[in-house]
Design a protein that fits this description.
This protein is mainly α. A 3-stranded mixed sheet has the order 1-3-2. A hairpin with a 2-residue loop joins β2 and β3.
Length: 215
């Protein structure tokens, strides 16, 4: 299988260890050795499992902490029904209340799964809570019959909270957020700037030492 279907094989291996960031990290490293790229998490492309996408493997959202697989599957179903999510607001609006919580949205942003919306993570983190509160308030008033025709138009306008213009967080902070939410550095590694110095120094990777200790 690894010889003839390496993409499917490695995607299945990573899916089988969704709860182990250490093993996923090792398999991602093995994919690099095989010349297979691992694409970052993306709410418009990822599923709950690791999946084959072209000549690459797409990171599975099931590996993101504090995000239930039921929520992810519901999100995928809405994506298939109504097309890709166009913005953070569109995502919150289309996901039913009770399915989505603030921790899940925060972790989607932190791991980079919402980079597809074209905004800095710092900008989305600054506004997602107030946007969720506003949309939830509008839904509640609508269900209780408190919104008339003109009131509905006014509330729709108030729910459209603008996303502020903010500078992006530095690279180190972005990687720390990825590590916090997935257990893995996705967009880089803190040692990337030092790899040139470490090359040919016979430094043994920690992963290799762990394998020797637990063969």
């Amino acid at each position: 299988l690894k010889c003839h279907y390496p993409h499917q094989y490695m995607a299945a291996l990573m899916t089988s260890v969704l709860d182990s960031a250490t093993k996923i990290s090792g398999y991602i490293s093995e994919c690099k050795d095989l010349g297979i790229a691992t694409l970052p998490p993306d709410i418009n492309h990822s599923e709950d499992t690791f999946t084959v996408e072209g000549d690459s493997i797409r990171f599975g959202l099931g590996a993101v902490k504090n995000v239930g697989r039921g929520l992810i599957r519901s999100m995928v179903a809405r994506r298939q029904e109504g097309g890709p999510f166009k913005s953070l607001e569109d995502f919150i609006q289309r996901m039913g209340e009770g399915e989505l919580n603030k921790r899940a949205v925060e972790n989607f942003i932190k791991c980079g799964a919402m980079d597809c919306f074209g905004h800095h993570r710092s900008e989305l983190l600054a506004v997602f809570e107030s946007m969720m509160d506003s949309i939830a308030s509008t839904r509640k008033k609508n269900l209780e019959g408190q919104i008339g025709l003109f009131g509905l138009l006014e509330d729709d306008a108030s729910a459209k909270i603008p996303i502020p213009k903010l500078p992006e967080l530095n690279r180190a902070d972005l990687m720390l957020m990825e590590k916090e939410t997935t257990g893995i550095y996705l967009s880089g590694h803190p040692l990337d700037d030092y790899r040139g110095f470490l090359r040919n120094t016979h430094v043994v990777p920690i992963g290799a030492l762990m394998e020797e200790e637990n063969p």
